[in-house]
């Protein structure tokens, strides 16, 4: 059976991004060479650069795929009737955990995404990839905000896309400049930032604490984000 060339390319591209991330996670972005990645991914350096012009491209590609998986999970939970505040707590807890676990990679992702601009003629490939990642991050947050608005937690007419973009920026800035030691420190920092961003967007009678209460930890060490519905 003939194998589709596009599928082959996509599979190879995904493998390179995954292998590169595994190497970055162990040794850091600067310590891993293109030759290290090519050898681990079983491709030549020429092929490596055909798929990704730089190591940052590889990092963004893997990061974007992980974010998309988190979005799919969040949307599935919302469609199943989960409380949007609970889903929000799960999303932020996972982001905080990854931010601490891979803190040595946050700088490269954060700087690329925060500096991303809408596509334009002549824009560098890295900028376009960073913009795609930024849009994917907003797409992770926005469905939860829409669900909150539909449940009466946020005011009608709130621009969920703008709010999502601001929340994503707040997350990345906190990770870049916070120097957090663990997930709980990240979440505490985010509570203050989120409260400021959502000020005025909450429906009458709803407080920021109702939406942004930090998750607790169960006896087995697993984050427990359960909260009563509004």
TrEMBL record:
<keyword id="KW-0238">DNA-binding</keyword>
<feature type="region of interest" description="Disordered">
    <location>
        <begin position="208"/>
        <end position="230"/>
    </location>
</feature>
<dbReference type="Pfam" id="PF00440">
    <property type="entry name" value="TetR_N"/>
</dbReference>
<keyword id="KW-0804">Transcription</keyword>
<dbReference type="InterPro" id="IPR009057">
    <property type="entry name" value="Homeodomain-like_sf"/>
</dbReference>
<dbReference type="GO" id="GO:0000976">
    <property type="term" value="F:transcription cis-regulatory region binding"/>
</dbReference>
<dbReference type="InterPro" id="IPR050109">
    <property type="entry name" value="HTH-type_TetR-like_transc_reg"/>
</dbReference>
<keyword id="KW-0805">Transcription regulation</keyword>
<dbReference type="GO" id="GO:0003700">
    <property type="term" value="F:DNA-binding transcription factor activity"/>
</dbReference>
<dbReference type="Pfam" id="PF21776">
    <property type="entry name" value="TetR_C_44"/>
</dbReference>
<dbReference type="InterPro" id="IPR023772">
    <property type="entry name" value="DNA-bd_HTH_TetR-type_CS"/>
</dbReference>
<feature type="DNA-binding region" description="H-T-H motif">
    <location>
        <begin position="33"/>
        <end position="52"/>
    </location>
</feature>
<dbReference type="InterPro" id="IPR049444">
    <property type="entry name" value="TetR_C_44"/>
</dbReference>
<dbReference type="InterPro" id="IPR001647">
    <property type="entry name" value="HTH_TetR"/>
</dbReference>
<protein>
    <submittedName>
        <fullName>TetR/AcrR family transcriptional regulator</fullName>
    </submittedName>
</protein>
<feature type="domain" description="HTH tetR-type">
    <location>
        <begin position="10"/>
        <end position="70"/>
    </location>
</feature>
């Amino acid at each position: 059976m003939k194998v589709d060339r596009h599928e082959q390319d996509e599979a190879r591209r995904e493998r390179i991004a995954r292998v590169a991330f595994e190497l970055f996670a162990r040794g850091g972005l600067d310590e891993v060479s293109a030759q290290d990645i090519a050898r681990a991914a079983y491709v030549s350096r020429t092929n490596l650069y055909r798929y990704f012009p730089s190591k940052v491209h590889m990092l963004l590609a893997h990061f974007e795929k992980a974010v998309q998986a988190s979005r799919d999970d969040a949307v599935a939970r919302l469609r199943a009737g989960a409380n949007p505040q609970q889903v929000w707590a799960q999303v932020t807890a996972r982001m905080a955990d990854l931010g601490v676990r891979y803190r040595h990679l946050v700088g490269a992702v954060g700087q690329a995404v925060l500096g991303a601009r809408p596509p334009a003629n002549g824009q560098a490939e890295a900028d376009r990839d960073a913009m795609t990642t930024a849009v994917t991050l907003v797409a992770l947050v926005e469905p939860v905000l829409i669900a909150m608005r539909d449940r009466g937690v946020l005011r009608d007419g709130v621009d969920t896309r703008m709010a999502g973009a601001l929340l994503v920026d707040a997350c990345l800035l906190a990770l870049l400049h916070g120097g957090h030691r663990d997930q709980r420190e990240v979440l505490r920092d985010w509570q203050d930032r989120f409260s400021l961003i959502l000020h005025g967007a909450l429906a009458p009678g709803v407080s920021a604490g109702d939406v942004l209460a930090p998750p607790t930890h169960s006896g087995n060490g697993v984050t427990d984000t359960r909260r009563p519905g509004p």
